[in-house]
Every structure is written in C-alpha cells, then in structure tokens.
C-alpha cells in the first residue's frame, strides 16, 4: 500500500486554473447610445446631420438566481462535520456573474472590479427572521423592494433600470440587524479577494444534470469560520449569497434600522466538534496490519481453532453454515454462498436448454459433510420472488411469452398448410361429386397453385422431403425475416439486466453473516456467475415452458448480451466515509488498465457496493476534488502554509514556512478572517515571485487557501 496527498491528482482530470476575475464585455445596466455625424467641409450649409439617440438595456441577474446556475456549495446542503477551520463557498456556472454589476452606491477608486455578491454566514439565534438557521427568507415583489419600506433600509436602485417584466415577480430577502452586518460583511477593500474565476476541477454534489467537465466557474467565499462549539454541541448555520448592489457600506449607516438584503441562494449545514475521524484516519485503517479493518477478501470469520480441515476449507471458500428446512418440514444443516466469493467460482453445469426450470435442480450435494449447498437454489427462489413482487415486470414477461407462443403456433400452422399444398398426393383428374376439399385440391392443379404459393410462401418442413424446385417460394416476411425485438422484450431485458447487477436483492442474500463485513472495513470479492444465472432463471421462470418458450428465451439472452459486461468482481465498504463523503472518488485499475465500474451504490447508511468488470489490483480512494475548499491549517493556531506561484510549480507548499492569519472574534461570537491582512503577510513570504506588488491578487489568494483533498492508494497482490 502506498499513500500520497491529493494535490498530486492526475493532471488530465483535476488540473485547475485560477483567474482573478472574468469581466463581462459590458456591465449590466441602462445605456444611452448617441450617434453623431459631422462633415468638415466648409461648402456644406450645415456641419452635421443631426443626432440619433437610443436607450439600450443590458440585462443580467439582479433579484433572482436560477438554481441551475449554482454548480455546487461547500459544505454540502444539510451536511454535518467539523467545518470549523474551513471557509464555506459557493461555485457558480456563470463565471462572469460576480462582476456583472457593482457593489455599494459610492464609487471608491480601486474597487471598480469588486464583486457585487457576498457570501454571509448566520448562526442560530442571529437572524430575527430565522432564529434556528434553517435558511428561511421573506418573499417580496421586486416592486415592493424598489419602493422601499420605512422599517428597513433597502437597496437604493432606480426602478427604471429594472426589467419591467420582473417588477411583480417575487424575490427573497433577509433583514439583517445593522450591528450584525457590520461584523459579518467583508470590508470593501477585501471583497475582491473573496471572489475568483476557476477553470476545471470537479465539485462534490453538483446540481443534477450539470456537466462536471473542465468548464469555467465563479467562486465566492465567505470570511467567517463556523464556530468550534465546546463539548459535543453542534451549531447549525445558514449561508446566504446576497446582493450588495445599491447598498452603502455598513460603517457609513446613519441609523439603526435593519438592512434588507436580496438573498439569491441559501443553504444550511451543521458544524460539529472534531471527532477525530478525518478522511486520512478512516481510509488509513484499510492498510495492511490493521486487523479486521484491513482490506481483505470477503469471507466468513474464522470459527476458532480445532476446526476440521474440510470445514475450514468451506469457510475459506466463502460458504456459511445455515439451517435448511426440507420440503417435509425437517431441519437440517446446509451451506450457503451468496454471489460474492473470495475465490473464482467454478462454472455451474447447466441443463440442455440452458436454463434451470426450478430450484430443486440447484440443490448441490456436499459429499464431505453429507449436506446440501443451498446458495444457488436460494438465488433461483430470490429471483422468482423479486419478479412476482414487481407486477410490471411479471405482466410484461407473461405477455411476451404469450406473444411468442402465438407466433410459434402461427408458424406451425403455416408449416401444416405447406405440407398439405406441397407434400400431399393430389388427385390427377376431375373429382365429380367429390368433397369440398377434393374440389379445392383439383382447383389447385392449375396455375392457381403457383399464385397461392407466391402470396403465402412455402417454408420448408424439416421432417419432409423438400418441395419441387418449381413450386418453391420465399416465406412471407413476417414469418421468415429476422424480427426486431418487441418493446416488451426490451423492457424485460432491461429489468433483468438491473437484476444481474443485484439491484433489489436483499442484503442478507449478499452478505449472509454480518461478521463478514465488520465496521470500518473494506472487502473485495469475485462475483459468482452461476449465482447470477440462477437468479435470472428464477425471475424468468414465470409462465415458462421450456419447449414453447425457447425462442423468447433466446431473444432475451441476446438482448442481455448486448447490455454490456457482466459483473465479475467488486468491493463492499462499510465505513463512516460513506455518509461523511457522499461524493467519494474511487479509481480501480488492473495493472495499468482502468477497471470499469458497472454499479456503485450506497446500500445503507454506511455501506457502499461497487461492481467491476474484472478484479482490480490497485484501488485509490480520494476526497472529492471539490475538496478544493478553502481554509487554514488550524483555527487555533491560525496558520497557512504558503504555496509557490512559480510557473510549473504553482500550488506546491513551501516547506518549513508558515504564516499566522488574523482571526478576530466579534461581539456576536463570529470568528472572522482578516483577508486583506493575510494577503499582505503571504505577499511578504512570496515577495521574490510577485515583486514589485505588495499584496496578492484574488487568484493568488485562493491558491494559498486551498485545502487539497487527500488520497489513499491500496495495492493488492494475489487477487487475479
């Protein structure tokens, strides 16, 4: 096993570029365009042709933000964890959004490119309108907001500059006490450091349907650290992305009225005391030498010493002793194996038609103990029970089989007509006074036979000699040509393919003994193909008759083969990593070739199942690259390790160097980072690289505060 920090993630997947800002070609607002044309010639009676004016509105989000524009937030909504040394942030898909408008009403030199958006963090009991920090907001129309309210101080915006179509639409607002806003709102000269543009990098929990490829994003960060509450108390926070357009700086406010801010997006999370269960600590337990926590094959635990060799061998192969109730009601000992084994299972002998008709044929005798191995029989019964429990699939399968039998009967009837037309002995002369059949056969003695054969066709009967060449015709297309799979066949095959990845199979069937998967453990396994086949045969057994349904079975087999690879290996992870890091990244490889992940799903609060197309020999676990979150090494020591800005080495920590950040605690108990002072201190450490500047740009500041995700690589030997 090897470990290394994530920061050294694969460049093609996690290369991230930081930019100070992404300025729009023109800021949002109302513009007056004036066009004049002057002619310098003195021979013309007038020196101009008049002036043309046109008012143009440049529109951009102002009072509402489309939820789909929010790419990700950190911490994730409703998450819990030790976030006390991290700065929450929001990532926006529209990379130029923070700079499309201007903050505040007073235009101070040097702040023209500051973002008009700020991220504010409110704890429980701070906002009068949201005492429990649930992210609650008030809804008012844009018209009401612009008209103002004497009880609060809202933004000073020109109604004429707003889109008339939006005046009667709602927007979300929060009323913040002025003294609290003065403590939480970043200083005007620090706003620029708290927003930057980013290209590339993957985010945890991106909005549904969003592309996580190398695109451009805007990132807005707060300066408030969540509180590290004493004892076991957890503190809930509500984060609000607010607009500063039309407001004055809090320090210039003249009265004590609350300030009404437009909340464009909000979410909540809970900061818990550090429990000592970091990603590195949890993942490091899977290394060799950590007892039952170490990554190992999935098998029953040893049952103690003195076990007979043949019984120990069965346990080593993944079989578990269990109670077996026979058809007569007697209780006996049997051995059970699920689909997950620590070894490659031998091929399961199959019947002549390829499908097991019942579970009895899958009860295998174990000669050394004189008992049965009931795993495959249980798989068959489980598949049948799951099929019966799904009325949609059961109806589709029965209808598909009925349609197949109808086609089979039609073909057989057609073969009967063929034999009557071509294989029978027809009379050679007129049959005066004969039966209707004889009269019809006499009629066919002429050219009518060829005409009828052309219409109906003449498929050959394998049990009779072929018809004369002169009378052979092609069978009708609906009986002879390859038939496209019906919608019922496709639907049934899709359901069976999901079942083949063990979707819906009870967990007790997968892991029959909970001691096989102890807490904080990672177990690898091979998938028993015979168990999967028995499972599918049980599901397909509804209304099945082997002779009549052979064509339908072959059709389903072909569709299943086209659905992709069958799982042959996988892993089970039972750990606090599953709920704590829902976007945990797994990368599996066999030698140098990546392993395809067929299924990855959480089966419970702390259990994750992954199925592969082959057994890996190397597994890498990484924190989500959205772990590109921001913070300090420790809020108690308030230290930041400077990172070089040299080309080709940008982001590499400078060993042995650290900067103490200034974190102040306000009267409300909020811990606020002095971003401007920290940027100046870091600039002193990096003076040779940024001279003659004395402070950092927003992009350089973001690089210094990045908390790189951790990565753990496990190497396995003898798994192939």
Broad shape: globular
Mean pLDDT: 80
Helix content: 10-25%
For the biggest sheet, the summary is: 6 strands, mixed
The number of distinct helices, counting runs of at least 4 residues, comes to 18
Q: End-to-end span in angstroms?
A: 17 Å
What's the count of strands? 36
Low-confidence stretches: 1-13, 204-213, 425-432, 458-481
Strand content: 15-25%
SS-based class: alpha+beta
Please give the radius of gyration in angstroms. Answer: 37 Å
Task: Give a verbal description of the structure.
- With 720 residues, the protein is of the alpha+beta class.
- The protein has 18 helices and 36 strands.
- The strands form nine sheets. Strands 6, 9, 10, 11, 15 and 16 form a six-stranded mixed β-sheet that branches.
- Helix 6 (375-389) runs parallel beside helix 13 (529-539), helix 7 (391-423) crosses helix 11 (487-500) and helix 11 crosses helix 14 (550-561).
- The radius of gyration is 37 Å and the shape is globular.
Descriptive keywords:
36 strands; 18 helices; single chain; 6-stranded mixed β-sheet; disordered N terminus; 720 residues
Offer a quick outline of the entry.
This protein is α+β, with helices and mostly antiparallel strands. 23% of the residues lie in helices and 24% in strands.
Helix and strand arrangement:
Blueprint (H helix, E strand, L loop, with lengths): L1 E4 L5 H4 L2 E3 L9 E10 L9 E11 L11 E5 L5 E2 L4 E2 L1 E4 L24 E7 L14 E4 H6 L22 E7 L1 H7 L10 E5 L16 E6 L2 E2 L9 E9 L15 E13 L7 H6 L11 E2 L11 H8 L3 E6 L5 E6 L3 E2 L22 E3 L4 E3 L1 H15 L1 H33 L12 H8 L4 H9 L20 H4 L6 H14 L6 H4 L10 E7 L1 H11 L10 H12 L7 E6 L2 H4 L4 E6 L2 E2 L2 E6 L4 E6 L5 E5 L6 E3 L7 E2 L18 E2 L2 E3 L5 E3 L1 H11 L1 H4 L7 H8 E2 L2 E6 L5
Parallel strand pairs: 6-16, 17-23, 19-22
Antiparallel strand pairs: 1-36, 2-12, 3-4, 5-8, 7-30, 8-13, 9-15, 10-11, 11-16, 12-13, 14-34, 15-16, 18-19, 20-23, 21-22, 23-24, 24-28, 25-26, 25-29, 27-28, 29-36, 30-35, 31-32, 33-34
Helix pairs in contact: 6-13, 7-11, 11-14
